Amino acid sequence: QAKEEGRNTYRFYTPNLTETAQERLGLEARLHRALASEEFVLHYQAQVDMRDGQLIGCEALVRWNSATEGLVAPDRFIPLAEETGLIVPLGEWVLRQACAQGQSWRAGGLADLTVAVNLSGRQLRAPDLVERVTRVLEETGLPPARLKLELTESMIMGQGERALDLLRGLKRLGVRLSIDDFGTGYSSLAYLKRLPIDELKIDRDFVRDIPADSSDMEIAATIIAMARNLRLNVIAEGVETSEQCDFLIRQGCMAGQGYLFGRPQPAEDFTSLLSDHQTAKHAYR
Ligand code: C2E
Ligand code: MG
Ligand code: MG
Ligand code: MG
Question: How far is CA 83 from CA 58, 111, 123, 179, 207, in A?
């Protein structure tokens, strides 16, 4: 009887599981091909001084320009790329592309921006990350101080003591380190204090419902105070309204990123924005 039931259950679920596995395999194969045929593109989103809208940097965000599906958001392929390890070559492509772009804006006299690049846990676990970053900086000519690497709390904590050596190695290169999605992890003040980082990036979750949600406002204010006490820079992500902007400035967070200042956009569009900005010499916002 039990066996019979088990078999029924098994037969019932098999087709679905098979389908999912096949879908995954299909996606995995298509991602590999996409990397080889250069179907990935970077979009750039402005990071500004919220007081005057002055551009201070940008974040590179990857998209997959798929022939069949159009522009695919990273949430739909980064997790699988991480699982399969494809994120390592993809992440290196992103890093090289973003550094080359930043250097080309500098060389063209357009802007001297800090370019932020997201790293994944898998890249952090690779034994030669510091060497890879060194090589990309040398090859592209971007000054290390113009590169900001965004890491999450969980990525760093998952590395245990090794994380400290790794972050110190990256800092020795002269790059900046930012903790992305800050506030969603579990790092203590004591732990944070030991990390050789430059910036906390307040997660969008705590910005979105300002000013409706008073506990989110308290969390945002606490992160800002924490950054001040640890002598770290702080930037808010997902700033969409002037109320959010004003609140953050009042609390002491001057840097921001979000739709209020600009959506992520293709390199060409970001470049023309930079040249408009330069000729007009007016505030960006
Ligand atoms: P993230 O690093 O936290 O990036 C911020 C995300 O918030 C981006 O989504 C951006 O488009 C979005 N965003 C920015 N401002 C606003 C706003 O005002 N409102 C709203 N609703 N959203 C805003 P995106 O580009 O879809 O990227 C999602 C995530 O995918 C990123 O989150 C990051 O974790 C990951 N990702 C993107 N590019 C890369 C990459 O090159 N490598 C790795 N490892 N991960 C990446
Ligand atoms: Mg990020
Ligand atoms: Mg983020
Ligand atoms: Mg986020």
Answer: 27, 37, 12, 22, 30
Mutate to test the pocket of ligand 1, among 71, 76, 78 (most ligand atoms within 8 A of CB): 78
ipTM: 0.98
Task: Output 65 or 27, whichever has higher pLDDT.
Answer: 65
> Worst-scoring range by mean pLDDT, 176-190, 211-225, 261-275?
176-190
DSSP summary character for residue 284: -
Q: Is the CB of 75 under 6 A from ligand 1?
A: yes
Spatial CB neighbours of 212, under 8 Å, sequence gap ≥ 6: none
Query: Does the beta carbon of 183 sit less than 6 angstroms from any atom of ligand 1?
Result: no
User: Nearest residue CA, atom 33 of ligand 1?
Assistant: 118
Token pair, residue 223, equals 């992160």
DSSP 8-state class, residue 200: E
The alpha carbons of the chain give a radius of gyration, in whole angstroms, of 21
Residue 243 CA, ligand 3 centroid: distance in Å: 20
Question: How many other C-beta atoms are found inside a 10 Å radius of the C-beta of residue 215?
Answer: 9
What is the rounded distance in angstroms from the CA atom of residue 27 to the CA atom of residue 93?
19
**Residue 270 backbone dihedrals phi, psi, to 5 degrees:** -65, -35
**Alpha-carbon distance 195 to 89, whole Å?**
27
- pLDDT tens for 22-34 read 778 788 899 999 9
* Size (the chain), residues: 285
